[in-house]
Amino acid sequence: MSIFESLDTLRATPIPDQAEARARKEGFRGHAIDKNCAAFGEAMVNLNDHGIAGENYYHSTRNPPYWRRIEGSIPDLLARSAIALKLAGINLVLHEGGLELFVFDAWRPRAVQVYFHDVWMPQEVHKRNPSLSDEELERAVETHWAAPSTNADSPAPHATGGAVDLTLRFIGGERLWMGSIFDDVTDLAYRDHFERDDVPAMAFSDEEARANRRLLHWIMSDAGFVGHPDEWWHFSYGDQLWAKLSGVSAARYGEAKP
């Protein structure tokens, strides 16, 4: 089978219903972390230095819906060394088909997490639905933005260096259409949005988004990553979300210290 046939097979393979994953990820911040494993102290590296394309979305001004640099952001795309190796391996496969990964975000400073969790997201959710109770508002916010934490036993995924936000693009060129902008915090961003039976008759654009999401999902899954069920772009390896969704007894990564 040629690489093109392999990629076409992934584009045609549906993403499973994410309802089970949504239920299973509840409480993942309380999952155990193995602080004695060899990976716990794994070094952080800059993904760009390992040939992986990307631009830190929060340090850019080309970042709708924000259109401005977020205070506290950094230009670097930092992740654990094992993440860099895995992404580089995925690129070896994608390159044969003229594609590559493009990273939006990896390790995230706490100031950025605090801003979006405590300020930006609550304001946006309240603006769209001012009738929500405080509890409902918090639940809506944390669907997409994990609470920042100083608790070493409960780090936000992006604080571990094991979480990456990314997409696919033609090598050195345009990104593939995924059906929404990055950081769209509605159900349009749900990983299985275009797989649902209740989605209206799909336009060509929707069918293309579905195929591209499938390709991204499966090529990352085959490398050992797990995807956030509510975000087509978010993948984890080694953190508590990965451990909880994979059925692993303990996470490999705690909070990273770049």
Description:
The protein has 258 residues and is of the alpha+beta class. The protein has one domain (3-246): Muramoyl-pentapeptide Carboxypeptidase, domain 2. The protein is built from 7 helices and 7 strands; from the N terminus they run H-H-E-E-E-H-E-H-H-E-H-E-E-H. The strands form 2 sheets. A 5-stranded mixed β-sheet has the order 2-4-5-7-6, with helices on both faces. A two-stranded antiparallel sheet has the order 1-3. Helix 1 (3-11) crosses helix 6 (204-221) and helix 4 packs across helix 5 (134-142). The protein is globular, with a radius of gyration of 18 Å.
Write the layout of secondary structure elements.
Blueprint: H1 3-11, H2 19-24, E1 44-46, E2 53-54, E3 78-80, H3 81-96, E4 99-105, H4 110-128, H5 134-142, E5 163-170, H6 204-221, E6 226-227, E7 234-236, H7 240-246
Helix pairs in contact: 1-6, 4-5
CATH topology label: Muramoyl-pentapeptide Carboxypeptidase, domain 2
Q: Kindly report how far apart the N and C termini lie.
A: 42 Å
Percent strand: 5-15%
User: In one word, what is the shape?
Assistant: globular
| Sequence stretches where pLDDT stays below 50 over 5 or more residues | none
- Tell me the number of strands: 7
Domains counted in the coordinates: how many? 1
Q: Order of strands across the widest beta sheet?
A: 2-4-5-7-6
Order of helices and strands: HHEEEHEHHEHEEH
User: Percent range for helical residues?
Assistant: 25-40%
Summing up helix and strand content along with how strands pair, one would put the structural category as alpha+beta
User: What is the CATH C-level name?
Assistant: Alpha Beta
Mean pLDDT figure = 94
Question: How would a crystallographer describe the biggest sheet?
Answer: 5 strands, mixed
